[in-house]
Amino acid sequence: MSPTTVVTGLGVAAPNGLGTEEYWKATLAGQSGLGRITRFDASQYPSTVAGEVPGFVAEEHIPSRLMPQTDHMTRLALAAAEWAIKDAAVVPDQLPEYGMGVVTAASGGAVEFGQRELQNLWSQGKEYVSAYQSFAWFYAVNTGQISIRHKMRGPSGVLLTEQAGGIDSLGHARRHIRKGVPLVVSGGVDAAVCPWGWVPQIASGLLSTEPDPTRAFLPFSAEASGYVPGEGGAILVVEDADSARTRGAAQIYGEIAGYAATLDPAPGSGRPPGLRRAAENALADAGLTPADIDVVFADAAGTPALDRAEAQAIEGVFGARAVPVTAPKSMTGRLLAGGSALDVATALLALRDGVIPPTAPVTAAAPEYSIDLVTEARDAQLRTALVLTRGHGGFNAALVVRRSA
Amino acid sequence: MRRVVITGLGVVAPGGVGVKNYWELLTAGRSATRTISFFDASPFRSQVAAECDFDPKAAGLSPQEIRRLDRAAQFAVVSTREAVADSGLDLSALDPGRVGTSLGSAVGCTTSLEREYVVVSDGGRKWNVDHEYAVPELYRHFVPSSMAAEVGFAAGAEGPAAVVSTGCTSGLDSLGHAVELIREGTADVMIAGATEAPISPITSACFDAIHATTPRNDDPEHACRPFDRTRSGLVLGEGAAILVLEELEAARARGAHIYAEIAGFAARCNAYHMTGLKPDGREMSQAIDAALDEARLDPTSIDYINAHGSGTKMNDRHETGAFKKSLGAHAYETPVSSIKSMIGHSLGAIGSLEIAACALAMEHGVLPPTANLHEPDPELDLDYIPLVAREKQTDTVLSVGSGFGGFQSAMVLARPERSLS
Amino acid sequence: MPITTEVTLADLTRMLRESAGEEEGVDLDGDVIDTPFIDLGYDSLALLQVIGQIQREYGLVIPDDAVVDAETPRALLALINTAS
Fold first, then answer.
1. According to the model, what pLDDT value does residue C1 have?
2. Where are the domains of chain A?
3. Optimal mutation site among A60, A65, A130, A141, interface C, most CBs of chain C within 10 A
């Protein structure tokens, strides 16, 4: 019998709240963190709305020595990791030296740092490129810096599946736990709100061009017109349940009970997309049936075609309007590698408090979707949640969390 | 427990496309490093690299694939097709949901990204880069996960897929990840390996800035000198290796040719420094011990070590220390070599290229040498197979890697027919 | 470009702060001229970064080995102020 994997700590940095409880309060109240971009002058671009993390003063969280060698993304990740570890009341010295690992997701790397160094190189010359560039921009930077900061020497990793990365990282963390690692710090935090992070997303053709922040990202609604990117995400402390109880963990938010990932078939093959299969495989992995699931956290891509595909997948698994569906990322934007990690954290908070957060400011699902979309916070007895995610280019993943008995 | 074997290989490497060319280069002890031809490297401290002579059309890619894919993704797709053909596996007869993809890469589609950056920023002049000049492929290049999807599409795989990006251990870690997925029962077949095409101005600039790459530009073929007293840094490389991995019993049942079993794998972090290594090799030794433990093999069973051997002062000392710590006296009897002396350091790809070399070494009974090792460093006192390939039958081989971020990984290949203790 | 003004310890500590930050518990304004960089919390990357900044600001060429050879601020300043 393989060990049970539980989550014992959360650290959240989100556009509608810095810190877990700030975020959760805002989310339940339907307060959106989307607004006109302030991190750079976006007036020349067709898309001008983003979710920016408010009130983050890096110097308050990051040692001076790390400041010149870290991007905004890594600073947010280090802060979230520290909060998660503190929340879990982990005393690293009390765990085996190789008993703590770090697994995070990334999408496009630390892109603002990278843009600055590309500009230094191309406008001024190679003498102007930072000695820190070799690692500060790259995909593994958050895992590396968290590992060093907290002296975590166990099996670690970095997974890239775009938006699905947060869930894939947590699934991978569970793998490590099952192989005997007591604790893994996992999840994803991302930040690409800079011109060189913005233009590639414009090129994807999926960004909303609606300038009104209250109307720019309305997943599953009849007015859905694309997605709004955001920055931030969540870091979770994932543990072997026995080990967590033995060390007297502060709390157990819930169990990672099921996980699965799939790839869509090659374009043009005519075969069905893989999201439904991921959901079904995750349920099977958890030993649950669709009827056992109390709420679904949707991927909520925000374009009609992708929303339709997801609604069909959910209906295919559960039947029409058979389970509450929510997508509170409507208030944060899509956080790239941070998005699905934040969704898992949100699902755990929902289980804790017995309340489903809303898909605000969406007021109703488009009539064509046979889903019970939660648009106002809804009290409910929650034991289990299914979290769905899709990464650009064909990635799908699903994760089941369950309240610990 | 389900065991995992290698049944197919595909390679794009400096010196030639395909496994045959790769093995010829390695056994000839020939270095494929040369003065950088992809761009004017004259302003840089280091001006040499191991470049692939890769013609995507001749390698079988379609015009749309050539347009859509970054160079690293092109390497990966070409290698995937060779590996699948080599395995003899009829993928169309399998449940595609049971076939997964795991692709290592440290720097993703950096070549295409830099090329497009130069255009949208108008040569670095604009901070607010112009979206009107963005090509439709730009987002694919921005998120290198797209490369894993391309490999999956090329193989018809619909199981779990991901890019594993742990710096220069990506190529070992992506294989380790794939082994896990088969062992745990999530997949029966994995298309796994790694790719990298990092030879571009920004990569040269960032390695220049930390003096990681060699300044020895006057004699490119002899620029990379792992374990040599005169070593002066790494030489960038590029390439890809893709392996078909299968569950042992299924591979046997279909009569597959089995190169080797991936018997053990472990990854550790040194939690010490983003680029530096502790001289004593402690965490690498820990990874080696754990990989051997997983393989249920004794350190004295190791017949050959394929070293990280990047040719920096620090690395070669560090891992020699790790080998002694893990193997004890047996370290002095174990041949060790670094193929980076010939194909350079292709960052995230190199770990998979090295495992491919290890599989071929077991297959042919020949160990690739460390080229350019003329003046042994008195501090480094193991048998580093200088200059000339060596005939030796091997049943158990070890390959290791270190990566920025503090990653240290070790993988053990063995013959599946060995008796398990 | 010939150097006209000497780089002082104050210049160096300013650039160290900008290039590499300041280790907690270290007072760069104290008597640090003979304190090894390693004890000031600076590794070779920090030195490479600050040497890069010095080269750009002062138009100097500082030899590659400086990062290995100069173990203290005094030694690095001596190298800088004799560089061309």
1. 45
2. 5-246, 258-402
3. A65
